[in-house]
Amino acid sequence: MNRAASSRRRGFWLLESLLAVAIFSIGILSLAGAVNNCMVAQRVKQDDVLARTVLGNRMAEIEAGVVQVSETKTEELKGAFEGMKIKQSRREVKRKNEEKQDITGLWEITLEVQWQGDGQDLSRQLSFYFFPQSVGSQ
Hints:
The chain is α+β, with helices and mostly antiparallel strands. It contains 1 helix and 6 strands; from the N terminus they run αββββββ. The protein starts with a helix and ends in an 8-residue tail after the last strand.
């Protein structure tokens, strides 16, 4: 009788151990998924910061007259921005001043950065007005 009770206790202890290992494994797998999601979010955030930097730099170059925007063009970026493309275009803006006279030479510049992130196409866009006569002719 004693031997049968001892065998049952060992069987119950084995079952408890298996259940504990299963619960622990589920917890570890859930934690691994959460860590992976955090790493993906961090990569997306870093790419977004890079894209905003590209847009800000190109806007400053256009305003300084270093880069001319005469037609729509797309350019592959190099260096720290490898894998990104910038598309720039302009459109003339028809506006009148307070004396109802046409304002000539006012442009709307649109910049768009495109890149591939985690298997999907991502992009960031910036539009601003530019009056080239204020810094030099274009």
